[in-house]
């Protein structure tokens, strides 16, 4: 079973950067697509970014394109989200999620992801 834990969240000023990490302490997730989602207070959980099992393709939500980068290291059982040029509207709890085993094109609906971490808070001040 995949067991995910996020880290790297915190408080940052607008324009700053953070790097979120997602560690898997369970079985290897090399055959899983991985995604990052976020949820702001009073809002539904939304897709941020996803990466295919091989790392060969990625997908991003429009609000974060060009600012966020998702990557993975299957040997280390890690997934990352580099967040640059942060904006106050990026404030949310960020969740790492695993979809699989699944070898197709990445999916963006949270309903397709069957393993979730507890989340890490990201707060961007203006």
Q: Would you write up a description of this structure?
A:
With 126 residues, this protein is mostly beta strands. Helix content is 0%, strand content 47%. It contains no helices and eleven strands. The protein has strands at 4-7, 10-13, 18-24, 33-39, 46-51, 58-60, 68-73, 78-83, 92-99, 115-116, 120-125. Strands 2, 4, 5, 6, 9, 10 and 11 form a seven-stranded mixed sheet that branches. A four-stranded antiparallel sheet has the order 1-3-8-7, with no helix packed on it. The chain is globular.
Architecture blueprint of SSEs:
Elements: E1 4-7, E2 10-13, E3 18-24, E4 33-39, E5 46-51, E6 58-60, E7 68-73, E8 78-83, E9 92-99, E10 115-116, E11 120-125
Parallel strand pairs: 2-11
Antiparallel strand pairs: 1-3, 3-8, 4-5, 4-9, 5-6, 7-8, 9-10, 9-11
Q: Tally of extended strands?
A: 11
Radius of gyration: 13 Å
- From the spread of the alpha carbons, the general shape counts as globular
Which ranges are low-confidence, i.e. pLDDT below 50, for 5 or more consecutive residues? Answer: none
Sheet/helix structural class:
mainly beta
Distance, first to last CA = 40 Å
Q: For the residues shown, what is the average pLDDT?
A: 96
Helix share bin: under 10%
Strand % is over 45%
Largest sheet: 7 strands, mixed
Helix and strand run: EEEEEEEEEEE
What is the count of helical runs?
0
Keywords:
single chain, 126 residues, mainly beta, seven-stranded mixed sheet, 47% strand, 11 strands
């Amino acid at each position: 079973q995949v067991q995910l834990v996020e880290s790297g969240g915190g408080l940052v000023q607008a324009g700053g950067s953070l790097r979120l990490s997602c560690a898997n302490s369970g079985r290897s997730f090399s055959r899983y697509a991985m995604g990052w989602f976020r949820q702001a207070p009073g809002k539904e959980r939304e897709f941020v970014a996803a990466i295919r099992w091989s790392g060969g393709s990625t997908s991003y939500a429009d609000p974060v394109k060009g600012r966020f980068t998702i990557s993975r290291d299957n040997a280390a059982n890690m997934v990352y989200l580099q967040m640059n040029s942060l904006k106050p509207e990026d404030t949310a709890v960020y969740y790492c999620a695993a979809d699989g085993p699944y070898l197709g094109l990445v999916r963006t609906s949270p309903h397709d992801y069957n393993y979730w971490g507890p989340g890490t808070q990201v707060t961007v001040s203006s």
